[in-house]
Amino acid sequence: MTLLKTTLLAAASVILTTSMAQAAPTAALNAKFGVCFSCHGVDGHAILPTYPNLAGQNKDYLVQTLKEFRDGTRPNPIMGPMAKPLSNSDIDQIAMYFADLKPGKK
Ligand code: HEC
């Protein structure tokens, strides 16, 4: 995929995710946050009991927590490196995605 295509997809996904609550991630979300989904589940239900479920979690909590992982306020050997490369808008985007998912669905 070309850089231009990736950029356009990313822009489109921002518009999509802010304009409607959708359960299935766009290709751009998958490309950017696929690594998150590999542990926390694409539906926000984690793949292992020791990984937290994020479906339906409060958006502001998710934003705050990811910033704390990123700046080391909440030190964690797994989530620290995961949050490091995220921009504020990445954090907003993924927090909104998980907050919009229905909790309790398996
Ligand atoms: C290798 C598995 C793994 C990956 C990949 C991963 N996480 Fe996590 N995540 C965890 C674990 C384990 C915790 C619990 C950390 C702790 O002990 O506080 C966690 C915690 C979190 C929390 C805090 C949940 C809470 O209830 O406080 C958030 C938010 C989160 N992850 C988001 C993400 C995002 C966004 C990504 C992708 C950038 C991601 N994670 C990638 C395993 C993972």
TrEMBL record:
The keyword Electron transport applies. Residues 1-23 form the signal peptide. Pfam families: Cytochrom_C. Keywords: Electron transport, Heme, Iron, Metal-binding, Signal, Transport. InterPro entries: Cyt_c-like_dom, Cyt_c-like_dom_sf, Cytochrome_c_Oxidase_Subunit. Residues 24-102 form the Cytochrome c domain. It comes from the Bacteria. The keyword Transport applies. GO terms for molecular function: electron transfer activity; heme binding; metal ion binding. This is Cytochrome c553. The lineage of its organism: Bacteria, Pseudomonadati, Pseudomonadota, Betaproteobacteria, Burkholderiales.
